[in-house]
Design brief:
- The complex is a heterodimer of chains A (293) and B (275).
- Chain A is an all-alpha fold.
- In chain A, 78% of the residues lie in helices and 1% in strands.
- Chain A has one domain (66-292): MetI-like fold (Orthogonal Bundle).
- In chain A, strands 1-2 form a two-stranded antiparallel sheet.
- In chain A, β1 (40-41) and β2 form a beta hairpin.
- The model of chain A has no long low-confidence stretch (mean pLDDT 85).
- Chain B has 275 residues and is mainly α.
- Chain B has one domain: MetI-like fold.
- Chain B is 77% helix and 0% strand.
- Chain B has 13 helices and no strands.
- In chain B, α4 (64-95) packs antiparallel against α10 (190-205) and α7 packs antiparallel against α11 (209-215).
- The chains are: A mainly alpha (293), B mainly alpha (275).
- At the A-B interface, α1, α3, α4, α5 and α6 of A face α1, α2, α4, α5 and α6 of B.
């Protein structure tokens, strides 16, 4: 009897432990390290580590204006990104979902930016906003091509938004199309027979039925916006004049540029709580959708 | 009739926009064959001559064969490890009801809710403490660990929909646990495994952030994306080499996309619920 139990445990270990070790190493252990270091004052390399309790957290809320600038930037980015990406991708999806064969190329065009690397994306836009705009200014003479888009704090914000929307639109479009295709044909046809116009069908049949997709895409894009890091790190590096520092990038800089490792881990915990709230709502919405189905 | 027209206009607008959406890529492609002066003067025109010289120069200057070899090594080893271990784990966790099983499942799933950007800094520290910074091993281990949670989560959900009777039959027929898994369960997982392979291949091939964090600029272990990033992210104006580099780094992704389009689109939708 005991032997059987041991054997069962061994099979379990063989099947499960390799994965658990990989995941522990790459994610869970670093996360626990975060918890631990957040109560120390430490530069990340030296030997001197001073236990400071919750002082790091107090510091964040009272002295760290750069962090709150980053929060402001991230929230502003979130509003722009969520609104633009959802409205545009939903519009595109509504058109694309109706057209059958001919739209697969169109869909692919919208989708391709999502599957190329961030390096390519950032260099492409650096080229467009640099030499590209210079050339377009010579051709058209429009003043907007002569502005320094990447070099002006106000415009750099829109550059980040444009890049994020360009990269991610295809992803949301595909999700919306999946939702639209799932709407039963009978309902839209019945509405048509009852004399509803296209706009009426859209407003009273299609949109209410794809509300689950809308809420999921909104929440997914919201978490994406909160976590904004890659584009900032690869493209703007937070500049010009710290105008595009997102929360995640602020944490990264605190740890490796300003060498306040303890403070950075404390910030990252606040960041996690922030994101967890959104994820919790998202899971709840997803669950309720599963029940409906 | 008039309504028809309006709708058609919207359709046309969306399709025209789709071409505009791809415009940046097209512009990069046509300009990658031009000398710098022509890029500025004839930005929108096709190149006078399809000049491959700059491609050749970039190819040797960046030691592309080595970059491709590195990136392939990372992609293949990560995907192999995920395809080997993730279904085993997902299967066992889905079919075992014990506290240990629940605990392991939570450990594997938690990273999906916690953003990578939050524990990233401690991950770099941990990798450095283990003396793995700048090594291929370190990077591969991290990238396997980062791909695992979503893979296990997706496969776990899929296994729950497979009837357990199949496995019971196999057991009655005398198949051992390993045998049951490899000859009964694994073949049934093919659709979801395709999705996992597609997602992880793209993720590892296109990765620049993790490579940058773990490898830094170390020439021997750098991948394509990171090498281009290191070279051109600073204030550079060497577009004659940058553009061919971008185009060459994108070609494998694009070929992969065209051949796997159906799986990519389907896979991304099913993985959409990650945090």
């Amino acid at each position: 009897m005991r032997q059987k139990k041991v054997r069962e445990f061994l099979t379990f270990a063989l099947f499960v432990f390799p994965t658990v070790i990989f995941v522990l190493f790459a994610t869970d252990i670093p996360f626990v390290m975060n918890l631990y270091y957040s109560v120390f004052d430490w530069n990340g390399v030296g030997r001197s580590m001073e236990f400071v309790g919750f002082e790091n957290f107090v510091k964040i809320f009272t002295q760290d204006s750069l962090f709150w600038d980053a929060v402001k930037f991230t929230l502003k980015f979130a509003v722009f990104f969520v609104v633009i990406v959802n409205i545009v991708s939903l519009t595109v999806a509504l058109v694309m979902a109706k057209e059958k064969k001919s739209s697969s190329i169109g869909r692919a065009f919208y989708y391709i930016p999502y599957i190329i690397s961030l390096t390519a994306i950032s260099l492409i836009w650096k080229f467009i906003f640099g030499p590209g705009f210079e050339a377009l200014y010579e051709i058209t003479g429009w003043e907007m091509f002569n502005w320094s888009w990447v070099g002006t704090p106000k415009l750099a914000f829109y550059v980040v938004v444009i890049m994020a929307v360009w990269q991610n639109l295809g992803f949301y479009m595909v999700n919306y199309i999946a939702g639209i295709v799932a709407v039963p044909k009978e309902l839209t046809e019945a509405a048509k027979i009852d004399g509803a116009g296209r706009l009426q069908t859209l407003g009273h049949i299609t949109l209410p039925l794809i509300m689950p997709s809308v809420s999921i895409c909104t929440l997914t894009s919201l978490t994406f916006a909160f976590k904004l890091f890659d584009i900032v790190m690869v493209f703007t590096k937070g500049g010009p004049a710290n105008s595009t520092v997102s929360v995640a990038y602020n944490i990264y800089m605190e740890a490796f540029t300003r060498n306040n490792y303890g403070l950075a881990t404390a910030k990252s915990l606040i960041f996690v709580i922030f994101c967890l709230i959104v994820t919790a709502i998202q899971l709840k919405v997803t669950k309720s959708r599963e029940v409906e189905q | 009739m008039r309504r028809m027209k309006e709708v058609n206009i919207l359709v046309i607008v969306v399709f025209v926009c789709s071409i505009f959406w791809l415009m940046p890529l097209v512009l990069i492609f046509i300009n990658s064959f031009k000398p710098y002066n022509d890029m500025i003067q004839e930005f929108l025109a096709l190149p006078k001559r399809w000049n491959m010289e700059m491609y050749m120069e970039t190819w040797t200057q960046f030691n592309f064969p080595r970059l491709i070899a590195n990136t392939l090594l990372y992609t293949v080893s990560t995907v192999l490890a995920v395809v080997l271990f993730a279904p085993m784990t997902a299967y066992k966790l889905a079919r075992t009801k014990s506290k240990l099983s629940t605990f392991c499942f939570i450990i594997v799933i938690i990273p999906m809710m916690v953003p990578f950007q939050s524990y990233m800094i401690s991950l770099i520290k941990l990798v450095a403490n283990l003396k793995l910074t700048g090594t291929r091993t370190g990077y591969i281990l991290v990238s396997i660990g980062l791909c695992m949670p979503l893979a296990v989560y997706m496969i776990h959900g899929f296994i729950k929909s497979i009837p357990i009777e199949l496995e019971e039959c196999a057991r009655i027929d005398g198949a051992g646990k390993l045998r049951t898994y490899f000859s009964i369960v694994l073949p049934l997982l093919k659709p979801i495994l395709t999705t996992v392979v597609v997602l992880d291949t793209l993720a590892v091939w296109n990765d620049v952030i993790t490579n940058q964090l773990i490898i830094g600029g170390k020439a021997g272990a750098i991948n394509i994306q990171n090498a281009l990033y290191m070279q051109f992210s600073a204030q550079t104006s060497d577009w004659e080499h940058a553009l061919p580099g971008i185009v060459m780094s994108m070609i494998p992704s694009l070929i992969f996309f065209v051949s796997m389009q159906r799986h990519i689109v389907g896979g991304v939708t099913s993985g959409a619920v990650k945090g």
